[in-house]
Amino acid sequence: xxxxxxxxxxxxxxxxxxxxxxxxxxxxxxxxxxxxxxxxxxxxxxxxxxxxxxxxxxxxxxxxxxxxxxxxxxxxxxxxxxxxxxxxxxxxxxxxxxxxxxxxxxxxxxxxxxx
Amino acid sequence: xxxxxxxxxxxxxxxxxxxxxxxxxxxxxxxxxxxxxxxxxxxxxxxxxxxxxxxxxxxxxxxxxxxxxxxxxxxxxxxxxxxxxxxxxxxxxxxxxxxxxxxxxxxxxxxxxxxx
Lengths: 115, 116
Known about the structure:
The structure holds 2 protein chains of 2 kinds. Chain A contains no helices and 11 strands. Chain A is mostly beta strands. Chain B is globular. By secondary structure, chain B is an all-beta fold. Chain B has no helices and 12 strands.
């Protein structure tokens, strides 16, 4: 019953460094999403994917890249981290069809600090 | 334009009282879904309740109910008999379909504090 797993859970980066956040789901979900959460802002969509090999921009995509080479994995990359990218990052997935309101499953989050 | 508006940044309620958290939404779609999530201090997102736009009855899940007023575009969360463990951030979210894909759009959240 793993659901959605995010790694790492915490990370501190220096300005200009790069890193990749991994999201893995074992529910065979088609849709996957990356959100960021900042104080007082709720969750904002960074990028999303509607299936293996597809990606699209969300509300706040600048400074991030994503890839979905395998259906179960959705990677979020920061090529050159900036302090403005200090945030908590959540991954989510959904089957997209059936069930109660196409339920969404969230990972436990990654807390990223850029100094 | 804000698609999901939660006008209460913070609320303080006495234990065992009922509490209503407000949520209004903006959409021109006929088919949409409304969700409420709870985020305790530990940070995880916990699904509470869902209401589909075509559902005629208000959704209920234990102590949680969703007061859905479609004409007013509101989807308020009602928690009956509040408990100390209900202290958390609460987010209203709407599932919308745009650019051929469904997405979940969140409000800013309401921080609920239950006082003993």
